[in-house]
Amino acid sequence: MQWDIVIGLEIHVQLATQTKIFSGSSIAFGAEPNTQANAVDLAMPGTLPVPNEQAFRYAVMFGLATNAEIGRRSVFERKNYFYPDLPKGYQTTQLAQPIVGPGYVDIDLADGSTKRVRIHHAHLEEDAGKSLHEDYHGMTGIDLNRAGTPLIEVVTEPDMTSAEEAVAFARKLHSLVTSLGICDGDMSQGSMRFDVNISLKPKGSDTLGTRTETKNLNSFRFMEQAIAHEVERQMDILEDGGVIVQETRLYNGDRDESRSMRSKEEANDYRYFPCPDLLPVEIDDAFIEDARARLPELPDARKARFKEHYGLNDYDAGILSADARLAAFFEQTVEHGKDAKLAANWIQGEFSARLNAEEKSVAEAPITGAQLGALVTRIADNTLSSAGAKKVFEALWSGENDDVDAIIEAKGLKQVSDTGALESMVDEVLAGMPDQVAQYQQESDPKKQKKMLGGFMGPLMKASKGQGNPKLFNEILVRKLGG
Amino acid sequence: MHNKSVAELSRELESGKVSSVELTQQFLDRLKAEDGKYNSFITISEEQALAEARAADELRAAGKATAWTGVPFAHKDIFCTNGIRTTCGSKMLENFVPPYDATVTANFKAAGAVCLGKTNMDEFAMGSSNESSFYGAVTNPWGLSSGDKRVPGGSSGGSAAAVAARLVPAATGTDTGGSIRQPAALCGITGLKPTYGRVSRYGMIAFASSLDQGGPMARTAEDAALMMNVMAGYDPKDSTCIDREVPDYTATLNEPLKGLKIGLPKEYFSDQLSPAMEEQVRNAIREYEKLGATVKEVSLPNARLAIAAYYVIAPAEASANLSRFDGVRYGYRCEDPKDLMDMYTRTRAEGFGTEVKRRILVGTYALSAGYFDAYYLKAQKVRRLIQQDFINAFKEVDVLMSPVSPTPAFKQGEKNTDPVSMYLEDVFTIAINLAGIPAMSVPAGLVDGLPVGLQIIGDYFSEARLLNAAHQFQQVTDWHQREPQ
């Protein structure tokens, strides 16, 4: 039987505010446990929440960037459940009146088409703390540093029909929030976390099947794997004549397996009601216009500009515009490197490969766009051969030296492009290889001739101590041999 | 000294006849000697009080004294006090020492007042008789001579009893459904529940967040005004606190009442009120007529729904507010929990008393899926109707007057096994909290030797007018000066 896959996403995006959503504690990642938790975060008796205006501004910016209606009156509610890392015994979140209403995002697919994914709404809420189950001798440790970190939870319509589309949407959202500067996008630190709702229905059917929710996926790769895994699991059950149980599942990416966390019957009754400690927040036109004025260039506009302004092709422009920091790095490189296509190639090639190999983000790269730009300039003006350029890149990356020209000088990587000098080297080499010269000149097939040129290049590079410009050598050779 | 008001003690200190250390020691000695009869304090903070008194004397010597500098008083044990145990009347917080001050606490400290300790209260402010305290019931100083132990009212019963017994000249209270006014009435003192949002709730342990409001309890309206000068004001730490100018509440105490339009809500003079109580209240209103006020009957048609709406909204909010008492971070934790669920259930079963558990269950039920609309949403609609009733009434009159409680102080044990009869104690006070408006309780007579309170209800932010009306009444009557025998 043929099946249609139906996917909807819920994405938790940590907002990059200075302080928590309802208290003055810092939200910086990685501090000693409970050093960023004050009396409010610990839910000490009598303490009260005070909303962080910046979180509202960021949420409105997100709404504007996703073509959404902004909730003019947004209301915080209490979602009640007991858990040790939820200090108040309820999460302060939004339900009936979220700050961001229906909107949409267009995603690019591999076949070159675009697809619109609708966003049902996005709401503001506070993150919980963390339960630490290791190192406490059978007990559980509670770290409340994260408790109260502002989140927006983005809820899509079930508009995606494959893992590819879901991942494309997730990447687009990542690109959007990092471009907006409202999230640092660091997935490994939990800055974006995905819950995936999946159901199957017979191909062409109008009736949605029973869905499952797979929670807390924190990388695009795990998300793709988890979807593939869950689709296969549901398909096996359905094709064996079974039924899907509505449940929440946990996916283990390291083992590529999932297990049930709780069924619908076991689900909590969260007893939502408006939080009486927080008055409804009225968002007026001035606030929205202020947020609009703060919107930076968004990925779609940036991609169009990269194509137009730098002459990049669609693929290169797409890759380089998606990540705000990579885009900024690219533009810095071009500013110092003139040749945009060459800059694009180096960033997508050597630069990205090194980042991936060392599991570093663009921000953590040990070289600057200005340095890479200087390197690109020296390639473009023929000072460096590609082999020499790699050596310079290596020296920059390792921190051996931070100046491109100094490295070229110190390592003697400057190509010889003085035609007179190169011509005399060619004359010398050709004089020492009369048989090969004769062979070449007797050959009538230009293709074979071209191949034979390689035989002269080795001795030429040797004669020039590797510094002769290969392109010029080639030109001179053809001229002299042909003559 | 113990019979003097805050205003009088302030003048004594100013004149140099007594130092704050001397005054504080006198009050502490008397408190320790006398409170065995009333159990009105949970914690006496002698050391800190004397330190504050010494600091106050230094401030005064430096010429930096305010009206409150060096004056002793007490806090209801619901206000967090940095370094001093704050129990909220519960076993759950028996060991809880806050590392921060409530804003009200900080305000009194900044004014130089000397806090003698923390007064007893119904557990988590849930009760109308002060019998639900984990630290034992409070006994009303009134009626003791006849051999009966009577309740002081609740939940601010410890503050009311302590002021009535002259253990302190004034104490803070909180009022969610009548918890300042009803004990003030039953103990023959003066109490004010301010407009919701007038006094910061930061550091005041929450019962029902949309109804809770801190306020003064003292013997005179003038002292209540002095307390309001310290307590009222905007606090950025409380998002529900209102940023509005705070008047000097003592400045208008002596305004004449000629032309004051008083409304009598007919629903509050019903058969729920004993004839003897009604007579005292009507006598008090006649005093106002003598002062030049006019009186007319008004109607609050939805007032009868107030108790039903309140006992949905308040428990619903409380059920969430009290979730933080889970044994994880502070407060009581059961012995040797075998797993997480065991820790939660036993901690809360053992740490909370009966009335608190009853309200958590009621509130949880009212918020549950399938019941939310019928209970919580309906109650919120009723709340708006009640609010509108008051808004309409204040188009016709300046203040409303009524009884505070249906009966004078009842005997301990008389109502605490019947929650509904206990809830009816607040039949005249609860609608005011739902509407968010201010109201006072002023001593206005005796029935069978027990105090009767007159309730004066005002429009939003009319505290100065209420205090003025109460003060003028206290210039022509002496009910507020009567001492328990």
TrEMBL record, chain A:
Domain Asn/Gln amidotransferase stretches: 328-481
Superkingdom: Bacteria
PROSITE patterns: GATB
Catalytic activity reported: L-glutamyl-tRNA(Gln) + L-glutamine + ATP + H2O = L-glutaminyl-tRNA(Gln) + L-glutamate + ADP + phosphate + H(+); L-aspartyl-tRNA(Asn) + L-glutamine + ATP + H2O = L-asparaginyl-tRNA(Asn) + L-glutamate + ADP + phosphate + 2 H(+)
GO terms of biological process kind: glutaminyl-tRNAGln biosynthesis via transamidation; translation
Keywords (A to Z) from UniProt: ATP-binding, Ligase, Nucleotide-binding, Protein biosynthesis, Transferase
Enzyme Commission numbers on file: 6.3.5.-
SUPFAM superfamilies: GatB/YqeY motif, Glutamine synthetase/guanido kinase
Recorded GO MF terms: asparaginyl-tRNA synthase (glutamine-hydrolyzing) activity; ATP binding; glutaminyl-tRNA synthase (glutamine-hydrolyzing) activity; transferase activity
Pfam families per record: GatB_N, GatB_Yqey
Gene3D superfamilies: 1.10.10.410, GatB domain, N-terminal subdomain (1.10.150.380)
Complex and partners: Heterotrimer of A, B and C subunits.
Record-stated family: Belongs to the GatB/GatE family. GatB subfamily.
HAMAP family: GatB
Function: Allows the formation of correctly charged Asn-tRNA(Asn) or Gln-tRNA(Gln) through the transamidation of misacylated Asp-tRNA(Asn) or Glu-tRNA(Gln) in organisms which lack either or both of asparaginyl-tRNA or glutaminyl-tRNA synthetases. The reaction takes place in the presence of glutamine and ATP through an activated phospho-Asp-tRNA(Asn) or phospho-Glu-tRNA(Gln).
Name this polypeptide is given: Aspartyl/glutamyl-tRNA(Asn/Gln) amidotransferase subunit B
Organism in which the protein naturally occurs: Marinobacter profundi
Chain's gene name: gatB
UniProtKB/TrEMBL annotation, chain B:
UniProt KW keywords: ATP-binding, Ligase, Nucleotide-binding, Protein biosynthesis, Transferase
Gene Ontology MF terms in the entry: ATP binding; glutaminyl-tRNA synthase (glutamine-hydrolyzing) activity; transferase activity
GO cellular component, one term: glutamyl-tRNA(Gln) amidotransferase complex
EC number, as in UniProt: 6.3.5.7
Catalysed reaction equations from the record: L-glutamyl-tRNA(Gln) + L-glutamine + ATP + H2O = L-glutaminyl-tRNA(Gln) + L-glutamate + ADP + phosphate + H(+)
Active site: K76, S155, S179
Positions of the Amidase domain: 22-467
GO terms, biological process: translation
Keyword RNA-binding: no
Source domain of life: Bacteria
One of the Pfam families matching this protein, by short name: Amidase
Keyword Ligase: yes
Top EC class for this record: ligase
InterPro entries: Amidase (IPR000120), Amidase_CS (IPR020556), Amidase_dom (IPR023631), AS_sf (IPR036928), GatA (IPR004412)
Subunit structure: Heterotrimer of A, B and C subunits.
Role description: Allows the formation of correctly charged Gln-tRNA(Gln) through the transamidation of misacylated Glu-tRNA(Gln) in organisms which lack glutaminyl-tRNA synthetase. The reaction takes place in the presence of glutamine and ATP through an activated gamma-phospho-Glu-tRNA(Gln).
Family that this chain belongs to: Belongs to the amidase family. GatA subfamily.
HAMAP family: GatA
Protein known as: Glutamyl-tRNA(Gln) amidotransferase subunit A
Native source organism of the sequence: Marinobacter profundi
Gene (name only): gatA
